[in-house]
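Researcher: I'd like a structural prediction for the single chain below. Treat it as a standalone chain; there are no partners to consider.
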Amino acid sequence: MFDVRWIRDHPEAFDAGLARRGLAPLSGEIAALDAKRRAAQTELQQLQTRRNEASKQIGVAKKNGEDAAPLIAEVSDLKDRMQALDDAQKRSEVSVENALVAIPNMPSAEVPDGADDSANVELRRIGEKPEFDFSAKEHHELGEALSMMDFRRAAKLSGTRFVVLSGALARLERAIGQFMIDLQTGEHGYLEVNPPTLVRDTALFGTGQLPKFGDDLFRTTTDHWLIPTAEVPLTNLVADEILDESALPLRFTALTPCFRSEAGAAGKDTHGMIRQHQFSKVELVSIVHPDESENEHGRMTAAAEEVLKRLGLHYRVVVLSTGDLGFSARKTYDVEVWLPGQDAFREISSCSNCGDFQARRMRARFRTAGGKGTEFVHTLNGSGLAVGRALIAVMENYQRADGSIVVPEALRPYMGDLETIAADG
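Model: Treating it as a single chain, here is the predicted structure.
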């Protein structure tokens, strides 16, 4: 979210940022709305001053035995005019607020321009693709052949885009999540948090999912929302707070279920577990000093990459173009893992630097050391990683010709030292 004063002072820069997002200029419209608000506010203050003066004059007139009726009539008229102006000012404030909350974050200067994901720029590739002397299968073919991945029964229970895992595959998914959370807390300094998975409107507004993306979410009859990612509760831990500068950085992680309606994904990834309504994810969130957000972005991405390195999976890192950038992000690195069954890289983590965009919406600030003023913190979030997609990657990369799956060494301590998942296992 933007400071309207900054837009007034930097209209060209603001409109240039919108243009990079493929949006029309808005500085003039917002300035006009704000001008109406400020004009009403100024006139209201002037009328309030006159009303105070007239009220004093009424007292003097009555004390001196003079006719105070004209002054009383004026005060009554001023009261009506002030109420109308107060209503107009509030309407203008709402108009300005509604305009500002719908505007995405400005892209960082390092973000490549482009209309969509075709303009994303690959930064590096790590590891090697596995070589098979047989035709690699997709994860859902492997899972169903093992009788440990059931989409038919899941559909009976909940409809499409759900799955029932059982046996060793259910344990493998749990093992992956535990391995990830242990790595991020034990080696990368993230504090484990077990947050609510039901949140209020204000939490989703703070991180930018509301009001624009309500159709992508699940809402309860009690006006709670199921979280689409633990980014929402973790980032909002500092909402409406003023932190000491010495407390920064704060780093949080959580392994939670996530829920998404996938409203805009009709016809996409209809087979298998790639795009589910419910999935598990290890989320990483950092709350940092503005001077450290760029360094923290690289640090967070490296923490996500380390999971894939430990699992021995081939992956690449890309920086998203302006046309593929999320609403709240100023810069995003996507980590994409290689899936042999699809013969393609697929996203398994997005690590985003949001600058002060979310902090302004949440009113999350810090007090500078030795100073009286406050500044907005910078927030970052990333997947460390998506558990279901990591399961898919392990299954497809570690498959054998007979349909069995080798358990990566890093996961065996979580699997009772099981080395291979097979149909008879």
